[in-house]
Write the structure tokens for this entry.
Amino acid sequence: MGEAVEHSLSRLKPDDVRAIVAYLRDQPAISHSEEHVSRFAFGTPATYEVVLRGSSGITGGIVAGSGAELFSANCASCHGVAGTGSEDGYYPPLLHNTSVGASTPNNLVMVVLNGVQRRTTKSAVFMPGFAALNNEQIASTPRR
């Protein structure tokens, strides 16, 4: 979707944007049996960071190489230790994020592996890819 916004939707005239909004608002919602709550309702702040970065090392049930440790090493420095993003909004929250809360992990896996690089008229957005992670590590990264 980012490519569609970057290369075409961002260049729409205001009347075209209003027409698309009117059309989308007129469409009935599609319900999936596996989605029982809104994607924005998923997620609770992580609380294990103190254990991972504390002076006693990895303790308290946190297993070396676990999703919690991988999150701490690869994601927390930008998205925050609780997954709430940066205060200025530059790094988006992972809580209530549609890619993270989706019933299928396709978009999330693509972002983790390939990263994100988008340019808008106002700024550039960049997140590195983590292709060095193996399938097991990606699957163990906390999602909801």
